[in-house]
Amino acid sequence: MFQSQGFGTFTPTAVLTEALGQSAINSTVGVAGGIDLEEVEPNTLAVVDGEWVQVTAVNLIAQTVTLERGLLDTVPVPHAVGARLCFVDGWRFYLTPEYVQNEVARVKLLPRTPKGTFAEAAATELNLTLAKRFIRPYCPGNVRVKGLRYPSVITGELSVSWATRNRQSQTAYLALQTEGSITPEAGQTTTVRLFNEKSVLVRTLAGLIGSNVTWTLAEEASDSGLSRINGHLRIEIEAERGGHVSWQKQVIEFDRAGYGLRYGQYYGGI
After folding, report:
1. Which of 78, 81, 73 is nearest to 14 (CA)?
2. Does 229 have pLDDT greater than 90?
3. Which of these, 76, 16, 65, lies nearest to 40 by C-alpha position?
4. Which DSSP string do the residues of 24-88 spell out, in sequence order?
5. Enclosing H/E stretch for 224
6. How confident is the model over 176-225, as pLDDT tens digits?
7. Count of alpha carbons within 13 Å of 84, Cβ hemisphere only?
8. Distance of alpha carbon 133 from alpha carbon 60, whole angstroms
């Protein structure tokens, strides 16, 4: 049995006309099929494929939007052409009932027009499982691999750095991915996982309270069981506090160039 919980309005929306890469932290991207884009204000929130972004500019003539990526408890991830961008600031609707962990909120949305309201029996039921998102620590940001942001290829020994975040103190403004460390919550640590070229997890560094690690060439060869270093690597970085892990984690994949690696690629350096 469903009960009415109030009503909201449709958000302005559009779809991407070009792919949005992970490394495009601040980027201007083309959009099409826009609805009510003239209503979108600068420096407001939007969401695309579950990633929170800040809209810093909308160009109605050029049909582009400029975005700051991976805000709040989300991280930058690739988005394909056709991904839908919803400009939610000012159009959000909050349900007042309280739910507990693992409880499933059953929801139906009934569009209303001057001709009437969509029939409840015909509406698709949405099942949303509660996963304690509010209490989870924010994932580290400003990740650098050998000083580079989301590189496609590196050489030599692997070094990784990041900036810590704090869900409690980031309420006054939106911290950007490029910002430095914010003092984390008490007991909050960082976990880094390293995967070899066969996508096998070979080293986990948990309980880190600093903001950087180095995986020496000797450690890498030993962990991977190879007589050489890896030609491709994947890194995962997340925050942990009191048994709660961040809602999303940083996932970065890249090639490794060098003698005996990636034959036929990266001749002459990178």
Report:
1. 81
2. no
3. 65
4. -SEEEEEEEEEESGGGPPTTEEEEETTEEEEEEEEETTTTEEEEE-S-TT-----B-TT-EEE--
5. helix 217-224
6. 999 999 999 999 999 999 999 999 999 999 999 999 999 999 999 899 88
7. 7
8. 35
